[in-house]
Amino acid sequence: MKSRYGTVDAVGVSERVAKFAMRSIKGVSKTWGLRKVVSMMDLTTLEGKDTPGKVAALCRKAITPHVEMDLPHVAAACVYPAMVTYARTCLTGSPVRVASVATAFPAGQSPWRLRIEEVRRALAQGADEIDMVINRGAFLCGEGGRVQEEIATVAEVCGSATLKVILEVSELETLDNIRAASFLAMEVLRPGDFIKTSTGKTSSNATLETHQVMIEAIRDYFLATGVPVGMKPAGGIRTAKQSLQFLVAVKETLGDAWLVPTRYRFGASSLLNDVLRQLEKERVGAYPASYGFSESESAY
Hints:
The chain has helices spanning about 1-5, 10-20, 25-40, 50-65, 85-90, 110-125, 135-140, 145-160, 175-185, 210-225, 240-255, 270-285, and strands spanning about 40-45, 75-80, 95-100, 130-135, 160-165, 195, 230. The protein is of the alpha/beta class.
């Protein structure tokens, strides 16, 4: 797979992302960027203690991130399959999409028939988007064809629904593997589908380095095929400053065409409150107290 998809210059990647982290974005540009981040967010709760009431509160915040600021709605509310029905009820009539994790999130270790049935049930209950996990064990054993076949099957089952393929980059071991897994997924995805870094449930999630490897793969695939695939970094992005660094990377690698929710998402619900505080500071000139914002949901 390395020879087929090329290798990654790890030193070059590190040097490039270090420059993104040094950018200083202020004033009107900062406000524009943070509003863009809100519009690209998948607001998420993925906890064992999730309830219909918690999902309803999440959906209200997804539609109106803050009642005192004129902000865009987020892109989607993401929940476990068992909570899709409640999210669909809350979001019907709104522009916010319902996303569901599937295929035995986060480990992906259930039998295939159960994983694909979970996708079908989530769609039947009203999911607009499916976030699937790949079988990392199969990938690391060299069974790339099996991984690709499973992704292709889920894409077919999704029909008009958007598919996001979670690579779980912290478990793929090398940057070369992350690039190879990105291409394996993209080769069977449709325009408008996504590749995604992480579940947010491991010790290491989205980083500028792994993100850069994936967006360069997206760029190279687009230049070769003309097929635009979206990107979703997830987990570990907790501050407004970090989110702007990711946007800089996207703009300079993929261009403005990817600075839209149909091609780029943030899977980091704990990020939202910091973005709101930064926007309020830009608006009134002082940081608001943290207790003025609701508790963030899971860092996914």
